[in-house]
Amino acid sequence: MTAGRSVTVDGTLRRSARRTPERVAIQYEDRSWTYAELDDAVSRAARVLRESGLGPGDRVGAYGHNSDAYLIGFLACSRAGLVHVPVNQNLSGEDLAYLVGQSGCALVLADPDLAGNLPDGVRVQPLRDADDSLLARLAVTEPYDGEEPRGEDLVQLLYTSGTTAQPKGAMMTHRALVHEYLSAITALDLSAGDRPAHALPLYHSAQMHVFLLPSLAVGAQNIILDAPDGGRLFDLIETGRVDSLFAPPTVWIGLAGRPDFATRDLSGLRKAYYGASIMPVPVLERLKARLPTLAFYNCFGQSEIGPLAMVLGPDEHKGRMDSCGRPVLFVEARLVDEAGQDVPDGERGEIVYRSPQLCEGYWDKPEETAEAFRDGWFHSGDLAVRDTQGYFTVVDRVKDVINSGGVLVASRQVEDALYTHERVAEVAVIGLPDERWIEAVTAVVVPRGEVTEAELLAHAREKLAHFKAPKRVLFVDELPRNASGKILKRELRERFAQV
């Protein structure tokens, strides 16, 4: 690699710092960093990590809440040639031990209130709120000036959501993520004038790699929040400090359900991004009715591709609100059958990808890597149809399709039908073992007020063909989700298998 030509994640920040050094890059609580200050902090943190005995390629876990320190830790790993391993801050016990152990972390950057959850013997560096924390040591450390990593070097292990199996670490290179940033910037109309709030967990690839890093690359002013608190977000929007927001459907549902949603002045919100799981069409229609000038973007993808793969832009929603859009700049996508052959437009097939954004495979899992990467394409596990204009509509995950009496039923269509009932707050449709039907189409519903199983079954039968309508409705207080907002249907199937 010719010196000075490496494509690196931290290089995106360095260029912004040289272009607009005095512009505010990040605000978190009462701390504010200009681009020049943030870039300098990253270099000092990189030296802290290297002087602790870590070398190129060593894995460094990140087990913390949203903060400026979390971001600095990630970019410092990038600059120091280390491999960052983001860990869900809600994990503990065996799940936490698995990620730290399977990745082979030599060190874990941790918030003090979480560090006690880590397995015995794990080396810990506090991120903040301690005298020896990474933030505290910046003032007494010189900037790192060592050899920069190469574009083909690993920079992060992005562990998959684990909705159907044990998580796998997608091996992301600098070059792959920088390509993904360019795709995000072009598809999502990101610019230096944006004022985004980053309220979803930074350990998750969508918030970090689709929004925060691309926003830093273009020189935007960013606010990092601990969580997507509706009152705090509405205050920031009303005062003009925030004009764009990403959230999964579950958060948008919560925001739309707040009593003050109808009365607060939200006209300053220019761009609304949703993704991580399927947005029910009836919910999107309600949001658009309340905020008719707001530009909505549907973001679709998965960890292995960085994660953005497709986008449905604001001017593309009309007539196709259930679509996830078309592939972004650096992504090529096809639909194939079980034999790997292309399926015609309008027919269901599995999405496969080819892209410089793709991971190099799964960390220390050669069999799973070989299964996912076949014939030069990555097999996503998502089932979709494509129309003649190239728009994709996801109908299900391969493992979530329900075999009811020998007929395949896509759970999303059943969910959309039930969401049109005013008493349905949330719903997940699964297949449960059944002697007659093989799998019985079953709706698991979080109700809004009083509603009976008979009412919902009758409503579904009015909207759906008889074989698609649920055979049963089960009521719960809440649906199990991972941190990115995806419903864990695997847990529902296990929970209700014997009911």
Automatic annotation (TrEMBL):
<dbReference type="Pfam" id="PF00501">
    <property type="entry name" value="AMP-binding"/>
</dbReference>
<dbReference type="InterPro" id="IPR042099">
    <property type="entry name" value="ANL_N_sf"/>
</dbReference>
<dbReference type="InterPro" id="IPR000873">
    <property type="entry name" value="AMP-dep_synth/lig_dom"/>
</dbReference>
<dbReference type="Pfam" id="PF13193">
    <property type="entry name" value="AMP-binding_C"/>
</dbReference>
<feature type="domain" description="AMP-binding enzyme C-terminal">
    <location>
        <begin position="413"/>
        <end position="486"/>
    </location>
</feature>
<dbReference type="InterPro" id="IPR050237">
    <property type="entry name" value="ATP-dep_AMP-bd_enzyme"/>
</dbReference>
<feature type="domain" description="AMP-dependent synthetase/ligase">
    <location>
        <begin position="13"/>
        <end position="363"/>
    </location>
</feature>
<protein>
    <submittedName>
        <fullName>Acyl-CoA synthetase</fullName>
    </submittedName>
</protein>
<dbReference type="InterPro" id="IPR025110">
    <property type="entry name" value="AMP-bd_C"/>
</dbReference>
<dbReference type="InterPro" id="IPR045851">
    <property type="entry name" value="AMP-bd_C_sf"/>
</dbReference>
